[in-house]
Amino acid sequence: MKLAHWMYAGPAHIGTLRVASSFKNVHAIMHAPLGDDYSNVMRSMLERERDFTPVTASIVDRHVLARGSQEKVINNITRKDKEQRPDPIVSTPTCTSSILQEDLQNFVDRASISSESDVILADVNHYRVNELQAADRTLEQIVRHYLNKARGQGTLDRSITDTPSANIIGISTSGSHNQHDCRELKRLLQDSGIEVNQVIPEGGSLRDLKDLPKAWFNLVPYREVGLMTAMFPEKEFGMPYISTTPMGVIDIAECVEQMEKHINAWASILLKEKVNHASYIDNQTKFVSQAAWFSRSIDCQNPAGKKVVVFGDTTHAASITKIPAREMGIRVSCTGTYCKHDAEWFTEQVQGFCDEILITEDHTEVGDTIARIEPSAIFGTQMERHIGKRLDIPCGVIPSPVHIQNLPLGYRPFLGYEGTNQIADSVYNSFTSGMEDHLLDIFGGHDTKEAITKSLSTDTDPNWNLESQSELNKIPGFVRGRIKRNTENFARQKGVTNITVDLMYAAKEASGA
Amino acid sequence: MKTLETLTFECETGNYHTFCPISCVARSYQKIEDSFFLVVGTKTCGYFLQNALGVMIFAEPRYAMAESEEGDISAQLNDQEESKRLRLRIKRDRNPSVIIWIGTCTTEIIKMDLEGIAPKLEAEPGVPIVVARANGLDYAFTQGEDTVLAAMTHRCPEHGSLRHKQKQDLVYGSDIPPVEPRRDNRKGKESEIHPPLVLSGSLPSTVASQLNSELERQSVRVSGWLPSQRYTELPSLGEGVYVRGVNPFLSRTATTLMRRKKCRLIGAPFPIGPDGTRAWIEKICSVFGIKPHGLEERENLVWDNLKDYLRLVTGKSVFFTGDNLSEISLARFLIRCGMTVYEIGIPYMDKRYQAAELALLRNTCREMSIPMPRIVEKPDNYNQIQRMRELQPDLAITGMAHANPSEARGIDTKWSVEFTFAQIHGSTNARDVLELVTRPLRRNNKLEHLGWTNLSKQTTTQLFTN
């Protein structure tokens, strides 16, 4: 047993549900006890989703414990099939069904006989993989299922599109900034003369998956979700993929150069010409993205050499380590990730860009490290933001885990050239707010606190007795002032000078607050 | 839909959305100041708590997960040794007066004998351990609190025997000296002689003292609350003690109080809304043979103060999808406010524990001459959404999973969980309930003229698909 109250990555089934509900017309059925359908709340709340999350539960209750699910899972699948006719139904195990060890595959096989929809059992083990690994695995499983099916039916089209095209793999629901990143990637591809063949899983349709191999190559922007999926067609059809995350000026250039390479492999035959993006990269770097100029500007001299700590998922933590270190001249004292399963890749990526590397899932270890290093700024998840608050260190939030603030309405990509601007802003703003605080401290802070809270009226204040005083102190701080004022006003109106607990309640009833 | 003359009870498939009962730790750890809650479960439980509790998570809460690993599941690790190790750590870091183990689905399935391990660990000097099985296999949302309070009941000192209490503490190895229950003599006024009354339900201390003073006006003295502010101040229970829950979801606690502690349960409606509060006080007074005074005037005064809100809700219809068991009381209050209730979804309906509340609901419907709502136990959310589509209620009180999608389809929605965490008890807080209920109505009144009611591209037939 492990003592914990915060975790960076969620349980496996969350990953499966994220992928399943990203696709169009897919329904997921969890084999879970009551209350485990919390992912619906998160999607509907964090994503501000307008439509009902296509996830239901086949409830595991006492009866299931006593005599097994029997027909329950099957009935739930066939019912959903009749009600909504989804393309496939994905049956999802949870931690509970993992220990029950019911033969879900058998249920799924039987249910698929009686239902029109395909039924797939997500192949994830709750105790072995986390949310991100499960998402990666499920996406691969679905793609593999449909490509194999198309191959079996002979509908798999192996020819590639006439003009260069790419698939974007790994954009999913509840992935923070994913929607913005996707838009930015499409622009990057378009600028390079590449069409988008398909984006999966977000908004993708399973009926189209058979056309996935028509693209010239696959682009996998996030390391966590999509890599397995990209490896499958590479092995089967020799379809290349790019896994360099186009985050930060240098890596974007690297990514565009790889695209160029993949296009030119076919271009000389199909288009009778080769493409060259060198001037595009140069122009974007110097004049479209502001980041290169920004790191050269006077402003950016100040943060140079200051210490920062970075922590997050592998993709973001690695990129956000490299950007300040090699593009802005900032010293990264420590960088880390909670993706233990991918520690090797991460270490290799950030080697040479930071003083130390921290691989852990324990937020207290991250907190202790930050406290020891005392950096000028932190770039981390919501947890690090709160660690920063406690230690009075500014924090720029990089995903994930997600929080409603990490799903902004405004356009905030991390990827592509617009992403470089966003990141530069975020880095710079963290430092300036830190500077302001220090200056305020040095010069004695804002001198206005007393003046605001002290009332200017000359009325004699009613007297609070001990009980009412302690009752008042129980009221949460942010409304206490208002309650105090209302009660005192009420007492004045009544001509009472002693405030008792009863009077407080009477005032509350009268004022209606 | 045909109108109903009597209350009808239906039972659907139980495919509905609600919070997992382990969410009770959120309220309970704040209420019981010297406690520590340890949820023995998996990542799934942790993920739920982490997200449901929101910012509380960052405030170094007095709760934690004991996350089962594969070794625990396959019994390669020894449950008792593992529990012991964690207990020592909690004791060292936080030094609580009590550790409450919350058993989950996992501990049920692998049959981890929490109730058996706890006394063994307690036997060594340390911290008392209370075990509550608040799992999603058996319970919904607020019922979690019920299991905690029911377990806590066994730790209450015996009424009228201080020696027994000391002995009990010795047995359980508590190293905290027993604390004299706080005597509340603030008015200096002698209370009428009546048997001791203990109220159950974890309410914020302000709400608890509001209810105390409501009763005190009728010369009824509350001798204790379950739970108390501190574990060391639990009320004495036993034969001759009268008890009443303030929440509709405390049926297990009530049963335990009656059967194991020999307390007398007062059957009354719940003090939610001015009507409920009055009926609650009247019933308690009548049990003690006290003639209540000034209750009607007081109720009228409260209703008078609610006029502005009543104008907004009168004539409007409401649909409860059901997830927290307070639905009957809230519906009864809203009907008295002039609303029509189409359906009361509720996870679990204890007709005995809620008998007085159901009777009041029935009467309220008759007096307001509106059709009786249908009460749907273990509802099916999918069917409910179809019914909502047909009925087009003015307000849906539902969980967050359905709130945004319903709003996008032009149905005003209030998130049901807020009723669990807001202060809704007693006459003083009647306004807070209506504040919650009218919020969507007030907001949407302002937006109505914009013509953006329907913001979903889904057609009505493909409700769930995307």
From TrEMBL, chain A:
Keywords: 4Fe-4S, ATP-binding, Chlorophyll biosynthesis, Chloroplast, Iron, Iron-sulfur, Metal-binding, Nucleotide-binding, Oxidoreductase, Photosynthesis, Plastid
Protein name, per record: Light-independent protochlorophyllide reductase subunit B
Cell compartment(s), UniProt: Plastid, Chloroplast
Residues holding [4Fe-4S] cluster: D36
Cofactor or coenzyme needed: [4Fe-4S] cluster
Annotated Gene Ontology cellular component terms: chloroplast
Domain Nitrogenase/oxidoreductase component: residue ranges: 12-431
Gene: chlB
Enzyme class: oxidoreductase
Subunit comment: Protochlorophyllide reductase is composed of three subunits; ChlL, ChlN and ChlB. Forms a heterotetramer of two ChlB and two ChlN subunits.
Active site: D299 (proton donor)
Pfam hit, one: Oxidored_nitro
Cofactor note: Binds 1 [4Fe-4S] cluster per heterodimer. The cluster is bound at the heterodimer interface by residues from both subunits.
Entry's Gene Ontology BP terms: light-independent chlorophyll biosynthetic process; photosynthesis, dark reaction
Species of provenance: Osmunda mildei
InterPro entries assigned: ChlB/BchB/BchZ (IPR050152), LI-POR_suB-like_C (IPR013580), Nase/OxRdtase_comp1 (IPR000510), P-CP_red_C (IPR042298), Protochl_reductB (IPR005969), Protochlorophyllide_Rdtase (IPR016209)
GO MF terms, alphabetically ordered: 4 iron, 4 sulfur cluster binding; ATP binding; metal ion binding; oxidoreductase activity, acting on iron-sulfur proteins as donors; oxidoreductase activity, acting on the CH-CH group of donors, iron-sulfur protein as acceptor
Enzyme Commission code(s) on record: 1.3.7.7
Role description: Component of the dark-operative protochlorophyllide reductase (DPOR) that uses Mg-ATP and reduced ferredoxin to reduce ring D of protochlorophyllide (Pchlide) to form chlorophyllide a (Chlide). This reaction is light-independent. The NB-protein (ChlN-ChlB) is the catalytic component of the complex.
Primary localisation category: plastid
Automatic annotation (TrEMBL), chain B:
Main location: plastid
Official protein name in the record: Light-independent protochlorophyllide reductase subunit N
Cofactor: [4Fe-4S] cluster
Enzyme class, UniProt record, top EC level: oxidoreductase
Keyword Protein transport: no
Gene behind this protein: chlN
Gene Ontology CC: one annotated term: chloroplast
Catalytic activities: chlorophyllide a + oxidized 2[4Fe-4S]-[ferredoxin] + 2 ADP + 2 phosphate = protochlorophyllide a + reduced 2[4Fe-4S]-[ferredoxin] + 2 ATP + 2 H2O
Subcellular location: Plastid, Chloroplast
Organism encoding this protein: Osmunda mildei
Assembly and binders: Protochlorophyllide reductase is composed of three subunits; ChlL, ChlN and ChlB. Forms a heterotetramer of two ChlB and two ChlN subunits.
Family note: Belongs to the BchN/ChlN family.
Binding, [4Fe-4S] cluster: C20, C45, C105
Role of this protein: Component of the dark-operative protochlorophyllide reductase (DPOR) that uses Mg-ATP and reduced ferredoxin to reduce ring D of protochlorophyllide (Pchlide) to form chlorophyllide a (Chlide). This reaction is light-independent. The NB-protein (ChlN-ChlB) is the catalytic component of the complex.
GO biological process: light-independent chlorophyll biosynthetic process; photosynthesis, dark reaction
